[in-house]
Amino acid sequence: MLLKVARLLLCGVLGGAVVAAAALPVAIVAGGSARAGGDTWESLPTDLATPRPAQISYVYANDGRTLITAFYDENRQDVPLDQVAPVLRQAVVAAEDTRFYEHHGVDIRGVARAFVSNSRGGAQQGASTLTMQYVRNVLKNDPGLTPQQHLDALADTPVRKVREMRYAQAIEKKLGKNEILQRYLNIAYFGAGAYGIAAAAQTYFGKSPAALTLPEAALLAGLLQSPDADNPISGDRTAALERRAYTLDAMARTRAITAPEAAAAAAADLRLAEQRPPNDCTSVAPEHNDWGFFCDYFRQWWNGRPEFGATPAERDELLRTGGFRIVTALDPGVQAAALAQSLGVYGYGNARSLPIAVVAPGSGRVQALAVNRHYSLEPGRDNTVNQLVAGGAGVAGYQAGSTFKMFTMLAALDAGMPLSTRFKAPSRLASIWPASGPGTCGGRWCPGNDNPSWMDGDRTMWNAFGRSVNTYFVWLEQQVGARRVVEMAQRLGITFRGAADAAMAGRADQWGSFTLGVASTTPLDLANAYAAVAAGGVYCEPLPALSITDPDGRRLDAGDPRCRQVVDPDVAAAATDAARCPVGRASAAGRCDGGTAENVSAILAGRPVAGKTGSSENNATETFAGFTPQVAAAGIAVNTDSPNDRVGAGISGAVNSAVAQTMAAALRGQPVLAFPPPSRRIAT
């Protein structure tokens, strides 16, 4: 039957004129197309029954209102019909399908009218109903179709017309008119890159579709016939106004509005308020350009989640087309404080940088990622899209020095050695690991203390950690075994991104210098590792999200914390007790006697706080990692482009202060919480 219909369309002649492909005689519609193929709802293409057009994904700060950016290929976001102004619905029906609420998918009167007009050589008329237009839009956007099938969905042929009619009639038997109208409004193209009524209202008038006025609604409805050519942003403004007037007249004819209302709306000035959502991390608002580094981390995290697709490319496509509402953990206030502190140490224009990361213990949620750089593709020292704070994409990180002594202490405590473990630390220690060259002792690696008069002597974990005694911790690493120390760091999320570090991790027994922080890490990895100690040994994967919701309002568990106990709580409490020594606070056991960052306690006055400083060889980097029960943060001063550019010991106090001030900002308004004391068994 379908072939017969196509032949009639191609060959039909009335009064000597060739019948236009868009017109069908009433007899064909009534007697053939409805039965051709016997289409039912169950036999429809999947996308027609359950359409999934590409939708924009929005990414917000932790308040759920402050937009960070969006990700999309097509600017589109579905909205329910009750969130669309009634005047817009009326305008679309009047302009495109006045008998929409009367026909059953195919308007026989419209077909007959178009057939007669087109056959007589009059103005060419189509006979597509809104339901048929919806079918066409779905099929042309179906990602499962081949390029040829996409072309066929738009081809001006009898075959396409009959297929649309069959599908439209099947849809109308299943769905109500308002459901069809809602689907149509969410998939239709309105020009200027705006797909669907929500994007159109925002693009042209900077408002929601519920807030559209009569002149605005009529203008948008008028664009549907020729959205690229007629739109007033990139097309013909005069044509747009003419189409608005046409729509208003049609609304008056259908009695949706009165003739005076139509005339007044037609005379109204066209006031555009063009607004398009940002797209991707480089489009973050200029006044919050620093959020780009967090955005970049979020995207890396998303593309690494297997639940979003089998490959990074599939995951990225889902982000750009899935229509998610993502509320992140980014706290704008904490971020602003972290950036101000970073800039206070090294301003814009300085080759050196201070990347700072802030994490919430017990959830792993990342509250801030700041550095004295602009997130930008523009050339210049201050501009970069390299992930300087969280690492990845070729950035392995930086040496964090003695902050890694935390992992040696945890491994020793975990092996049953108490905090009171004593060793008479010498100025230099001939270790068990073989080495050659300068600084060796009889063919063995021979590390020394930076300040022998202050560091040498009888030490426990408390004062060795407080004074950062190298020879004590190398000795301690020997007692517990370097492999156990490296494994402890990995338990707490330290990732070896550099090839040399990854190779050494593979033969960890030989990595005696690991305790001195020679492996590259990032402020985020370090802050999150210390956050696990703050959380009583509970490690949580770093998480940029508070919630992720799909277009149907379902919350995805990908946005929930993923935590596990990796260290015994008493071991974590003991390590925390020793970590109070470096920052000038007394341990629960009262065993601290000197620290390398005593200025921190004054900045966080009245709050229990712990932490550790770190200096890499020749003070090439200076690091501080600190934590309270509610927040952990880390910063590393470094020249990210030139490791040989030594930042110097003189910057360490400023780094300690910058991280502590950032923590103070994150804790503002929060209750004061105490660390749990370690048991007598492990603290004696």
What distinguishing features does this structure have?
single chain; 684 residues; alpha+beta; five-stranded antiparallel β-sheet; four-stranded mixed β-sheet; 28 helices; 23 strands; 40% helix; disordered N terminus; penicillin binding; carboxypeptidase; protease
SSE diagram, text form:
Layout: H1 2-11, E1 13-14, E2 17-18, H2 26-33, H3 46-49, E3 57-60, E4 67-71, E5 75-76, H4 86-96, H5 108-119, H6 130-141, H7 147-154, H8 158-174, H9 177-187, E6 194-195, H10 197-205, H11 214-223, H12 227-230, H13 237-253, H14 259-267, H15 291-303, H16 312-321, E7 325-328, H17 332-345, E8 356-359, E9 366-370, E10 374-375, E11 383-384, E12 398-399, H18 405-414, E13 423-425, E14 440-441, E15 444-445, H19 452-455, E16 457-459, H20 461-467, H21 470-480, H22 482-491, H23 499-506, E17 520-521, H24 523-534, E18 538-540, E19 545-549, E20 563-565, H25 569-579, H26 599-603, E21 610-615, E22 622-627, E23 632-637, H27 652-667, H28 680-683
Parallel strand pairs: 3-7, 5-6, 10-11
Antiparallel strand pairs: 1-2, 3-4, 7-19, 8-9, 8-23, 12-17, 13-16, 14-15, 18-20, 21-22, 22-23
- Principal-axis shape: elongated
| Largest sheet: number of strands, sense, barrel closure | 5 strands, antiparallel
Helix content: 40-55%
Which blocks of ≥5 consecutive residues have pLDDT under 50? 1-37
**Percentage beta strand:** 5-15%
Number of β-strand runs: 23
**Count the helices. How many?**
28
**Mean pLDDT over the full residue set:** 90
Q: Decide which structural class fits the backbone.
A: alpha+beta
Estimated radius of gyration: 34 Å
Strand ordering within the main sheet:
9-8-23-22-21
Gap between N and C termini: 93 Å
